[in-house]
Amino acid sequence: MAKVEPLAYEDKTVYSVGAFNRGVAQWLERLPSVWVEGEVTELRRHERWASVFFTLKDPEEGASVGVSMARGQFDGLRLDLANGERVHVFGRPQLYDQRGDFRLRALSIERFGVGAHLAALERLKTKLAAEGLFAQERKRRLPLLPRRIGLVTGNDAAAKRDVLTTIQTRFPPANILVAETYVQGPRAADEIVAALRALCEQPNVDVIVLARGGGSFEDLLPFSDERVVRAVATSPVPIVSAVGHEQDTPLCDLAADVRASTPTMAGRLVVPDLGELVQRLDRARDSLGRNVRRTLDRDVQRAERAHERLRRAPALLVERKRARIEALAGKLGTLSPKATLRRGYAIVRNEHGVVSRVSVGERVDVELAESSFGARVEDVR
Questions:
Q1: Backbone angles phi, psi at 216, to 5 degrees
Q2: Which residues, other chains included, contact 26 with Cβ-Cβ below 8 Å and sequence gap of 6+?
Q3: How far, in Å, CA of 351 to CA of 311, rounded?
């Protein structure tokens, strides 16, 4: 920065406008950074601008001061600020010497009361977690084909359109019951709880989507209200929470059975894609048909083998019986008296039968292998 030097005019010390502005700017740079509270007005942002500009206004006194902030820093805060919001701005005073434009150069911005809200939410989160409301084992699986889908959302909300469009595109036969309600403001928590209960009482509602698009921290506060969180956790119907953007995590997300990063993703979670489902069914039907044909072919082959065995069984049985009879016949032939007679023996009988002892003068019949004859005993030895 150029040096600040006065001009010499006899008995006066005179500064040029540029020197004066530079002097004031250098003096302001020695001041510390401070927090300033006010309402955002005249917010101006452009993709080609290096900075974001707005006016910070004191609603009580009407005083105002211009504020500028590097666009990268502003976007990194992800505040989605809008005119009329009350904020705390941390920065230092700065004078642009070319135009004598006094501004507050912002280093950070917080919504008014955010710190207190965050602390209260953290206490509530710890309390509900200790009660088991966020436990993973409480989560229920979503039905594959819900008979009826409940949708709790705001009136004319982009979130409602995204959910309905996604569901109807993926699964046209879907039956959707919409409950429109307040999704921000002091009445929102009670209205959301009432809408959830009303949908749970409707017949055949198998899943409920709780949806809201992005918004400021304050806008999303109803979805971290204890009444809403408990209603979600105790719902008899599985609930999909799709509140805010992906980086937002209201407490109802933790209590829901499934958290969707966006309303569009919620629509994808609650219904299958009909085209993909039909393809899967076609593949399953083809696979089932192939399995049936393979099973039938195996059964036919087994039946044919059984038929062949049955056809051959009588002949095999007769053959086995014949072989057995022949074996027995052979054994009987070996044990037969005829076989003994053929070896030179004879059978002697009297009138009483086969005899082993005879007497002199006794008449007997003698059987040989090839013939027989009668005889009278003349001598006994």
A1: -70, 170
A2: 1, 4
A3: 56
- Which residue from 344, 343, 348 is spatially nearest to 359, judged by alpha carbons? 348
Are 219 and 184 in contact by the 8 Å Cβ rule? The answer is yes
Q: Is 369 helix (H, G, I), strand (E, B) or coil?
A: coil
What is the pLDDT, as a whole number, of residue 321? 83
Strand, coil or helix: 354: strand
pLDDT computed for residue 3 by the predictor: 66
What fold does the segment set 7-112 form as a domain?
A: OB fold (Dihydrolipoamide Acetyltransferase, E2P) (2.40.50)
pTM above 0.85, yes or no: no
pLDDT in tens, 16-26: 888 888 888 88
Domain spans, the chain:
7-112, 116-271, 273-302, 338-376
Fold classification of 116-271 (topology level): Rossmann fold (3.40.50)
Pair of tokens at residue 313: 């069984």
Of 172, 157, 281, 274, nearest to 209 by C-alpha is: 157
Taking only the tens place, the pLDDT of each residue in 67-97 is 999 998 998 888 878 787 888 999 999 888 7
